[in-house]
Each structure stands twice: as structure tokens, then as C-alpha cells.
């Protein structure tokens, strides 16, 4: 999800929470408090989702998963290399 899309959704959700709590209670302070709590909950959820996406293991059916487990076809590929990437003999 792109950040601008997330931001628009977050603003819309927090606006709905603020209007809903204000119409239910008539208190600006309660509406502000519940909106701040909802914003905190959304941020924690977004952060948790982001951490989950970063640390998830690749699935077997994903194209990149096979490339991670492949061994080099030639033992020479594992030969030591010098600073510029050329193989030392």
C-alpha cells in the first residue's frame, strides 16, 4: 500500500471516529481522546503489518523463493575474489 493511500484512509477513518464520538457524547474532549486512541491503534497496526511483511519467509510458490535455495552450478563460482571482483587463481 502506498503511503498517500494509507494517509487518506487514515484521515477518513479518524474523521469518522471523531464525528461519531462527538455526535454520541456531545463532548469535544471525548471525541479528541477517542480519535487519538484510534490513531495510535492504527499506527501500531500499520507498524506491525510492516514488520510482518519485512520478516516473513518467502513462500515456495513465489518465484524468488527458488532462487534463494539454489547452489552454484560450478565450484569455481565459490573461488575467492580480489577487491575488484576478479577471481584469484
Main sheet record: none
Gyration radius, rounded: 25 Å
Indicate the overall shape. Answer: elongated
The percentage helix is 55-70%
Number of contiguous helices: 3
Number-wise, the strands total 0
**Oligomerization:** single chain
> What structural class do the secondary elements suggest?
mainly alpha
Low-confidence stretches: none
Organism: Mesorhizobium argentiipisi
Protein name: Exopolysaccharide production repressor exox
Keywords: Membrane, Transmembrane, Transmembrane helix
What is this entry, summarized?
The chain is mainly alpha-helical and about 90 residues long. It has helices spanning about 5-25, 30-55, 65-70.
Protein architecture, described:
Helices cover 65% and strands 0% of the residues. The protein has 89 residues and is an all-alpha fold. The protein has a domain at 1-56. The protein is elongated, with a radius of gyration of 25 Å. Residues 65-89 are annotated as: Disordered. It comes from Mesorhizobium argentiipisi. This is Exopolysaccharide production repressor exox.
Which short descriptors sum up this protein?
3 helices, 0% strand, membrane, transmembrane helix, single chain, 89 residues, mainly alpha, Exopolysaccharide production repressor exox
Give the secondary structure arrangement, pairings included.
Elements: H1 3-25, H2 28-55, H3 63-69
Helix pairs in contact: 1-2
Amino acid at each position: 500500500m502506498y503511503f498517500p493511500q494509507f494517509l487518506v484512509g487514515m484521515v477518513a477513518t479518524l474523521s469518522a471516529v471523531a464525528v461519531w464520538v462527538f455526535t454520541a457524547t456531545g463532548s469535544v474532549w471525548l471525541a479528541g481522546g477517542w480519535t487519538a486512541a484510534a490513531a495510535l491503534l492504527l499506527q501500531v497496526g500499520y507498524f506491525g503489518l510492516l514488520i510482518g511483511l519485512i520478516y516473513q519467509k518467502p513462500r515456495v510458490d513465489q518465484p524468488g523463493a527458488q532462487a534463494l535455495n539454489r547452489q552454484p552450478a560450478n565450484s569455481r563460482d565459490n573461488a575467492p575474489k580480489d577487491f575488484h571482483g576478479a577471481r584469484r587463481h
